[in-house]
Amino acid sequence: MKIPEVFDDVISAVEERPGDVQPACDKLTAVGKMHKAKASQIEHKYFQAMEEPFLHMAKEVLQDRFNEKAEGLFRKFFSFCLKYLLEGFNS
After folding, report:
1. Is residue 4 pLDDT above 80, yes or no?
2. DSSP secondary-structure letter at 85?
3. Which Gene Ontology terms cover its molecular function (predicted)?
4. Which of 70, 1, 59, 60 minimizes the C-alpha distance to 35?
5. Whose C-alpha in 17, 25, 46, 81 is 20 to 30 A from the C-alpha of 32?
6. Are 88 and 30 a contacting pair, CB within 8 Å?
7. Over 80: is that where the pLDDT of 62 sits?
8. Residue 13 near residue 23 (C-beta atoms within 8 A)
9. Distant-in-sequence, close-in-space partners of 31: CB < 8 Å, separation ≥ 6
């Protein structure tokens, strides 16, 4: 699964059930576990290192609509994703 697909799946899960983010959390935890199983040499710090490339991708997509508020929201979204990715990876 490619990284943008994971984020798309998480957003879709939240949109489908806005009052219940558990499916999104479960997806991220499963992806973290998969990385641990398939690439055990990966260090957890590499997940954090994806934040700036993720923001760059969002900026490229949004172009002039990427402002300070959008950046803050994308950083919060990334932090949410990172929390559950690491939960799965470290389990």
Report:
1. no
2. H
3. heme binding; oxygen binding
4. 1
5. 17
6. yes
7. yes
8. yes
9. 1, 6, 85, 88
Considering only the C-alpha atoms of the chain, give the largest distance between any 2 of them, rounded to a whole number of Å: 40
Number of H helices, E strands in the chain: 5, 0
Q: Is the dihedral of CA 3, 81, 72, 48 positive or negative?
A: negative
Task: Note whether 76 and 55 are within 8 A (CB).
Answer: no
Contacting residues for 34 by C-beta, under 8 A, at least 6 apart:
88
- pLDDT tier, 50 (very low <50, low <70, confident <90, very high otherwise): very high
Residue 67 C-alpha from the chain's centroid? 20
Q: What would the pLDDT profile of 63-88 be if each residue is shown by its tens digit? A: 999 999 999 999 999 999 999 999 99
Burial classification of residue 5, based on how many CB atoms lie within 10 Å of its CB (0-12 exposed, 13-18 middle, 19 or more buried): exposed
- Residues across the chain: 91
Q: Which residue segment(s) compose the domain that 82 sits in?
A: 3-89
